[in-house]
Structures are given as structure tokens and as C-alpha cells.
């Protein structure tokens, strides 16, 4: 396994865990108003980094088929942020392959 594969896998694992944390509203029990507030306050991420991770976590909740391409380094975090802006149930079959 190369360093890139290891990094991609680690980021994918983190985003899957973050999506589950958000789905369960784990941030609420820690006193935060939402996932973004948790990421910036608790994890001390920049607003930009928090935005991309929040967008990815929300996308993975709705479209779990994106997880494997993320693990396989076919998608990066910034690409997932762009995909999250345009992907819908209606266009997923057409739009998703364009990002891989």
C-alpha cells in the first residue's frame, strides 16, 4: 500500500465516521449547534476545512456509493465538496460518474 492509498483510506474512514457522528447528532450531546460548529470549535479546523468535511459527511449519508471511489483515490475532498453542490437523486446516475 502506498502512502497515497493509506491517506485516502484514512480520510475515507474519517469521513464515514464523521457522517455517522452527524447522522446520530453526536455534536449535540457535546453542546454544539451543528457539525460545522463541532469541527471548528472542538477539532479546531479552519472554516474552509470544516466546510469540506461537513459537505463530504452529508454527501456520504445520502450517497454511500461515493465511499469506495473516495477510498480508491478517485475523488478528493475538494471534489466531493463540488459534487455535493450539484448531486441530486434525479441526476446521480449521470453526474456521479463524471466526477470519477
Quick tags:
mainly alpha; 7 helices; 72% helix
Work out the helix count: 7
Shape type: globular
Largest sheet: none
How far the N terminus sits from the C terminus, by CA atoms, comes to 21 Å
SSE class = mainly alpha
Percent helix, as a range, is over 70%
Poorly predicted runs are: none
Radius of gyration equals 14 Å
Q: Report mean pLDDT, rounded to a whole number.
A: 90
Oligomer: single chain
The total beta strand count reads 0
Taken as a percent bin, the fraction of beta residues is under 5%
**Would you list the SSEs in sequence order as H and E?**
HHHHHHH
Write a concise synopsis of the structure shown.
With 100 residues, this protein is mainly α.
Written account of the structure:
The structure is a single chain. The protein has 100 residues and is an all-alpha fold. It contains seven helices and no strands. It is globular. The mean pLDDT is 90.
Q: How is this fold's topology laid out?
A:
Elements: H1 3-23, H2 26-29, H3 35-42, H4 47-62, H5 67-71, H6 77-86, H7 92-99
Helix pairs in contact: 1-4, 3-4, 4-6
Amino acid at each position: 500500500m502506498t502512502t497515497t492509498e493509506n491517506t485516502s483510506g484514512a480520510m475515507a474512514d474519517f469521513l464515514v465516521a464523521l457522517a455517522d457522528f452527524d447522522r446520530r447528532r453526536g455534536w449535540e450531546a457535546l453542546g454544539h449547534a451543528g457539525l460545522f460548529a463541532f469541527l471548528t470549535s472542538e477539532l479546531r479546523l479552519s472554516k474552509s476545512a470544516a466546510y469540506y468535511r461537513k459537505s463530504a459527511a452529508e454527501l456520504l449519508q445520502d450517497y454511500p456509493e461515493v465511499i469506495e471511489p473516495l477510498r480508491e483515490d478517485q475523488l478528493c475532498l475538494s471534489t466531493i465538496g463540488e459534487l455535493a453542490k450539484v448531486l441530486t437523486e434525479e441526476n446521480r446516475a449521470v453526474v456521479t460518474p463524471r466526477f470519477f
